[in-house]
Design goal:
Number of strands: 3
Strand content: 15-25%
Structural class: alpha+beta
Largest sheet: 3 strands, antiparallel
Mean pLDDT: 86
Helix content: 25-40%
Low-confidence stretches: none
Radius of gyration: 28 Å
Order of helices and strands: HHHHEHEHE
Number of helices: 6
């Protein structure tokens, strides 16, 4: 069962107890206390023992998942490309997309889609000019 390990750690520190002292007070094995604090998982019997030792209700030890919806921010990145890399016999050198996107990735940006103005308008002219990259990253509060 998932358990609120942060609360256990907080209450243990408030009482100025070591993990060993909590193990003695609760009647649990030291290794069990370490596992509960690290993995946030405990049996019902362990939960009851901890609640008794920490003077709290067993329901207080239930893990409560926060249901937050992820939020994202978006930006567009214009990538200059001279005459288009699909025209003519001699193709123009394509910009180093990997370098551009890796640089943006260092700031947390992720490529969602890459477009050319011609394709975005539904026109296939056999040539491609500048490109527009749509980037997103998660907003961390």
């Amino acid at each position: 069962m998932k358990i609120n390990a942060e609360l256990i750690l907080e209450l243990r520190n408030k009482k100025l107890w070591s993990q060993d002292e909590l193990a003695i007070a609760s009647g649990l094995n030291l290794r069990t206390i370490q596992r509960i604090e690290n993995e946030a998982s405990a049996s019902l019997q362990s939960r009851k023992s901890l609640a008794s030792a920490l003077d709290i209700d067993t329901l207080d030890l239930e893990y409560k998942e926060s249901k937050k919806m992820k939020q994202y921010e978006y930006k567009t990145l214009e990538i200059k490309n001279k005459e288009g890399f699909l025209t003519g016999i001699k193709k123009q050198k394509l910009p180093d997309l990997a370098e551009i996107f890796n640089q943006e990735g260092k700031s947390g940006w992720l490529l969602v889609q890459i477009l050319t103005p011609e394709l975005a308008q539904g026109v296939w002219a056999g040539k491609t000019g500048d490109m527009i990259a749509i980037m997103q990253r998660e907003v961390v509060e």
